[in-house]
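Students often ask why inverse folding is considered easier than folding. One informal answer: many sequences map to the same fold, so there is more than one right answer. In these notes we will look at a single instance of the problem. The structure comes first.
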C-alpha cells in the first residue's frame, strides 16, 4: 500500500482526514514518482491526481523546512486554481514548519518576489507568473527538486505553453511530474524537451 511507505507525518495527516485507502492513480503513481523519474500521470477527473501531487511533494520534502529557496514548485492554470491548491496543501501542512507560498498574476510581482525571498519550501504559481519571477531573478532554483503541474491540459494555451518552455530552460536539474486526464499532443511534445525518458502511469 503506497500510504504505508510514506512519511509518518503524512500517514498521520491522512488518518486525521479519514483517507484510508489510495485511489488507483495513487496506488500506481506514488511509487513511480517516489523513484525520482519524470512522470506523466493520467487519470479521469476526480481520480485523486491532486492528492497524489500533494503527497509526493510532501514526501520529497520530508516535512523539513530547509534554507530559503523553494525545493518544490507546483504549477496551475490560474488564480482560482492556485488558491484551491494552496488550501489543499494547508490541510496537510497546518501545524508543521513547512512554508507554502501561493502566487498568481493579480498579485504584484515585486510583492511576490520579496515574500519568496523570505523563504519557501513549496511554491504554487502559474507558468506566466513564475516566468516573470524568473526573468526578475525572483526565484532561486538551485535547491529545486521537483516541479509538478496539475491539470496540465491548460498548457494548450499559447502563453502558458511558452512560459513553461522558458521556465524549463532556466532549471538545471529537477524531477518533472505532469498530471492530466490524457496525454494530448501538446503534453507529448514535452518529451523532446524536459520530459525526456518520462514514465507513464495511466488509469
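Output (designed amino acids):
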Amino acid at each position: 500500500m503506497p500510504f504505508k511507505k510514506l512519511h509518518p507525518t503524512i500517514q498521520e495527516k491522512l488518518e486525521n482526514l479519514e483517507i484510508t485507502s489510495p485511489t488507483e492513480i495513487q496506488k500506481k503513481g506514488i511509487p513511480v514518482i517516489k523513484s525520482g523519474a519524470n512522470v506523466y500521470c493520467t487519470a479521469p477527473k476526480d481520480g485523486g491526481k491532486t492528492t497524489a501531487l500533494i503527497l509526493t511533494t510532501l514526501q520529497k520534502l520530508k516535512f523539513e523546512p530547509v534554507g530559503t529557496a523553494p525545493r518544490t514548485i507546483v504549477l496551475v492554470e490560474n488564480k482560482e486554481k492556485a488558491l484551491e491548491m494552496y488550501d489543499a496543501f494547508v490541510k496537510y501542512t497546518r501545524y508543521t514548519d513547512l512554508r507554502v507560498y501561493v502566487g498568481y498574476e493579480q498579485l504584484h510581482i515585486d510583492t511576490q518576489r520579496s515574500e519568496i525571498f523570505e523563504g519557501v519550501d513549496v511554491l504554487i504559481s502559474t507558468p506566466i507568473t513564475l516566468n516573470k519571477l524568473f526573468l526578475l531573478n525572483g526565484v532561486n532554483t538551485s535547491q529545486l527538486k521537483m516541479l509538478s503541474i496539475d491539470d496540465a491540459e491548460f498548457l494548450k494555451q499559447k502563453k502558458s505553453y511558452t512560459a513553461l518552455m522558458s521556465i524549463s530552460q532556466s532549471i538545471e536539474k529537477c524531477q518533472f511530474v505532469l498530471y492530466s486526464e490524457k496525454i494530448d499532443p501538446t503534453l507529448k511534445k514535452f518529451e523532446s524537451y524536459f520530459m525526456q525518458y518520462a514514465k507513464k502511469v495511466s488509469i
